Amino acid sequence: MKNGRLFLVIVALLLTSLSSAWAVKIEISAPGEQEIPLALTSFLPMGPIKPEIAQEIDAVLEADLSLSGLFSLVDRGAFLSDAESLGLSSVQVDFAQWKLLGAEAVIKGGYRVEGDRLIIEARLFDVVARRMLTGRRYIGKLDEARRIAHTFADQVLLSLTGTKGPFSSRIAYISNRTGKKELYLMEVDGHAPVRLTSHRKIVLNPDFSPVGKELLFTSYKNGNPDLFRKEIYTGRESRLSHRKGLNIGGRYSPDGREVAVTLSKDKNSELYLLGTDGTIHKRLTNHWGIDVDPSWSPAGNEIAFVSDRRGNPHVYIVKLDSLEVRRLTFDGKYNATPAWSPDGKRIAFSRLEDKRFDIYTIKPDGTDQRRLTFGPGNKEHPRWSPDGRFLVYSLDHNNEKSIYLMRADGTGTRRISAPGGDDSHPAWSGDW
């Protein structure tokens, strides 16, 4: 997996502070309300022409920036002569042309191939202020154009909003493309899927470590649903918990020092905290009901989970210091798979109502419940992007399970997993 790393030398050329005009312009919580008119020019050769490289960069940047909901892309058919000029500095850009087209920002760049190296220059300009907002030089391998483009899309969002984009992160998921449910990894847009396990048994519930490239998951490899840990780049794998009964739903704490998990070693399904060596640190619940699906608050002081202790499954929250439990959801016949947003302001979950599951979000105090998905099929297992702008989830429709992505307000839905496999249980990495 080492060759799968984004092996880049990134040189910051210019990163100026955000002007107040731009800071006011972007509202992350309300994509699409105040879209910035953005001109995305084709990346031009700075040496021998390699049209496939430019096409790949252009396609990735357009898809990422469109998905963000923060931009309206200026029609390429209206571009004037400056679009054919490399223009890597402010003095080389004809800002008057872009202003005439209504653009408030423009992206320009170029590429060069030197042996087995790919060099990409990328710039973001403020048309109104007639200045460069950010510029980057990326040096990588010939096959890393896509990853470089994702990285620059992240930088564009950082420059304009103060928060880095999620496009260079990764999504883990479960797929039965080999006939058995195995663990896979793919880019945020679904490209470059890689199978990580060959257990030839049922694999479930992946979760990324917040520190290092590592995954937790449950596998029936040895007959029992045991909790495994896998280092992505080395491939090293070990059992973290193999107690009799369930060892499921493992979730790393925000600092990566503990794991919340459901164990049924004492006949009933309860929540526990484990150390990273698998030892039990603390029992969190003690109830006849089934307690599953833990999700940490970003502060690491509370855990949301699902329990049927009052009859139907609902979302509850337990305080780690006092073990006080409070009920969060009251509506619906079945509430499942809660996921706490990175900023701690909302909890996503799936709910069964009208004979299908849909994705909802709610504040941790139980107010402001919002339904995000509609239409046929069961939408389950929501997980947040590291910046909180997006949610990924699985859709079961027409006897096929697929991975979908949407903005945090429910707009911009797109399928990211390829047809032909039952894909489910997505998990979104942090910085990659």
What CATH calls the topology of the largest domain is Neuraminidase
- From the alpha-carbon coordinates, what is the Rg to the nearest angstrom? 23 Å
Percent strand? 35-45%
Q: Would you report the number of β strands?
A: 31
Explain what this protein looks like in three dimensions:
- The protein is mostly beta strands and about 425 residues long.
- The chain folds into two domains: about 1-160, TolB, N-terminal domain (Rossmann fold, 3-Layer(aba) Sandwich); about 170-430, Neuraminidase (6 Propeller), CATH 2.120.10.30.
- It has helices at about 20-25, 50-70, 95-100, 145-160; strands spanning about 10-15, 35-40, 45, 70-75, 105-115, 115-125, 130-140, 170-175, 180-185, 195, 205-210, 215-220, 225-230, 235-240, 245-250, 260-265, 270-275, 280-285, 290-295, 300-305, 315-320, 325, 335-340, 345-355, 355-360, 370, 380-385, 390-395, 400-405, 415, 425-430.
- Helix 2 (about 50-70) packs parallel to helix 4 (about 145-160).
